[in-house]
Amino acid sequence: MSASARVTPPSTNDDPLKADIGLVCALPLELAAFVSRWNRVKTYSGENFTFRGGYYNGIRIALVESGTGQKRATRATRALIDAHSPSWIVSTGFAGALTDSMHIGDRIVANQICLESGEALNIDIGMSSDPQQGLHVGGLLTVDRMVRTVEEKKNLNLQTQAVAVDMESFAVASVCRQTETRFIAVRTISDDLSVDLPKEALSLVGETGAVRLGALVGSLFKRPGCIKDLWRLREQSIEAADRLADFLGGVVKQLPTSRSQHASDS
Fold this sequence. Notes:
Blueprint: E1 21-25, H1 28-35, E2 39-46, E3 49-56, E4 59-65, H2 70-84, E5 88-97, E6 107-114, E7 120-122, E8 135-142, H3 150-160, E9 164-166, H4 169-179, E10 182-191, H5 201-204, H6 213-222, H7 226-254
Parallel strand pairs: 1-4, 1-5, 5-10, 6-8, 8-9
Antiparallel strand pairs: 2-3, 3-4, 5-9, 6-7, 6-10
Helix pairs in contact: 1-7, 2-4
């Protein structure tokens, strides 16, 4: 993928089940700002996942909200490919920074996705970092837990040399490799190395991505002061989602598809 501007022509695909680009994210909040910019949005359910479809700049997009973790991401990606046969899959959403050079709202495009075991998948993206613009190209680590503390994040960076961490991208990339579907991972930083995430964050979001209201009430009862930490986390997430929407819109328009010019998305 070239970092230079390239306009993708509107989709020529008349099959309502087909998509030019498929997006996989864990939580609705991560792509809510981007979906709000689509036209003709439809929401539907299948195989215990929520799907959204629509048009952005004439490009037909299908999104699946996988929930957290690699097992759900694997199933969701397979369901997305089976249902919509996209030309590209983009693993997207939030990530945690593993280096001091990354800040809330910065974006990462992965040139490698790895596991703590050392297993890694390389991605040829043809893009360079631009830290002054908040763009980082580097390794993305996938783990099966929320990495909460600054100390653990720094240790993971030393262990793997990855610059950011998430919970789904390796699984998504693996399915794409198996199905020979073109793949890219685009994430935005929602938590940096300035402070630990509040302990309550570990229990508030369930595997499906739904907020556990009982856990929230219990957290407020046990530590009323956590509301300040959780509010800060919410504000960071909103900022990250907005920054991701801006960047992801440009990425989607640059990804080449097999479609030729057809109709607009009006």
